[in-house]
Automatic annotation (TrEMBL):
Lineage of the species this protein comes from: Bacteria, Pseudomonadati, Pseudomonadota, Alphaproteobacteria, Rhodobacterales
Organism in which the protein naturally occurs: Rubellimicrobium aerolatum
Pfam families: GST_C, GST_N
Name by which UniProt lists this protein: Glutathione S-transferase family protein
Domain annotation GST C-terminal: ranges: 108-231
PROSITE patterns: GST_CTER (PS50405), GST_NTER (PS50404)
Coiled-coil blocks: none
Amino acid sequence: MADLSAFPITAKWPVSDPTRIQLFSYPTPNGQKVSCLLEETGLPYEAHRVTLADADVRSPEFLSLSPNNKIPAIIDPDGPGGAPLGLFESGAILIYLAEKAGMFLGATAADRARVIQWVMWQMGGLGPMLGQMGYFVKFAGKDIEDPRPRERFVGEARRLLGVLDGALEGREWVAGDYSIADMAIGPWLGTLDFYGAKPLVGWDDLRNVPGYVDRFFERPAAQAARNIPPR
């Protein structure tokens, strides 16, 4: 049985079953990505609730595993060579776990490249831009009188949604078969209702994205991930 006591995070979030993947997360869009994949693959895991409060994400214990103070992070007790492995960054975790499970990463090398391409698109574009838009539309940024920041991120959100809408023309999932690319993208599209931003980004003008979101959240794993770990 793996000994995870060398990971300081386990002092604040004790491990019940050290043979399972340890997930340290909260059901934000980035947290939902990894929970969704774990649910889809059936890899055994144990979820630990890490709130977004500084007492959690800026604690020495959490920073020891996730130095960027962001969820999610994992410990795999059975990492490469059988040694425990800690990882942070949701995109990296998705790729690692998909490889471990042998699922959702494409059947060929070309498929894999296309899947990772769209994961990177979400990590570098869709997620950050929608997050910034949310700040200026729903949170403290909405009170800033200068309209330019809000206009900047709303415009970029519209552009990125147009990119995705075009990529989905004639296909059910963004990179071919259902994959970690969809698990990366779907939860972030789900934020648009929360932000109340659908009219701002021209949601009703999109031909393919609305149905794509519906298909994603019809999957039991995607639904479950919205509350893993429970809020």
